[in-house]
Amino acid sequence: VQLQASGGGLVQAGGSLRLSCAASGRTFSNYARGWFRQAPGKEREFVAVISRGDIGIFYADSVKGRFTISGDNARNTVYLQMNSLKPEDTAVYYCAANGAGYVGSRQNRYDYWGQGTLVTVSS
Question: I need a labelling partner for 19 at 20 to 30 A (CA). Which of 11, 47, 67, 109 fits?
């Protein structure tokens, strides 16, 4: 499956953005689909994941209550709605997927990755 992330940009602190990850080649809802991010000078970290069939959703503590991951089966797309953005949310955001149904934070368990989209939050 090929993934294409989009929706990044520059936003002020407290603002919102919605990231999209469109999949081609397979039915996306058959995969666990996640978002990760890499801030400047830091390692890439887990943000959120939605399970196959959209049954289970998990978030990193740092984004819980502010970010929402959701799937749109008709568009073969997964979204990350980001509200109440903070400067520390500045990062390149990557979508990822795995066919095994893994819904954790270990990056090596994800088989497919998008190219990343930059989110910059100004203070």
Answer: 109
Per-residue pLDDT band for 105 (boundaries 50, 70, 90) equals very high
96-120 mean pLDDT: 97
Sorted by sequence, the CB contacts under 8 Å of residue 67 that are 6+ apart come out as 47, 48, 59, 80, 81, 82, 83
User: Which residues partner with 50 through β-bridges?
Assistant: 33, 57
How far apart CA 84 and CA 53 sit, in angstroms, is 28
Check residue 65 and give left, alpha or beta (phi > 0: left; psi -120 to 50: alpha). left
b/e burial code for range 2-12 (CB count within 10 A of at least 16 → b): ebebebbeebe
Q: Greatest CA span in the chain, whole angstroms?
A: 40
Q: Report CA 4 to chain centroid distance, whole Å.
A: 11
**What tens digit of pLDDT does each residue of 51-64 get?**
999 999 999 999 99
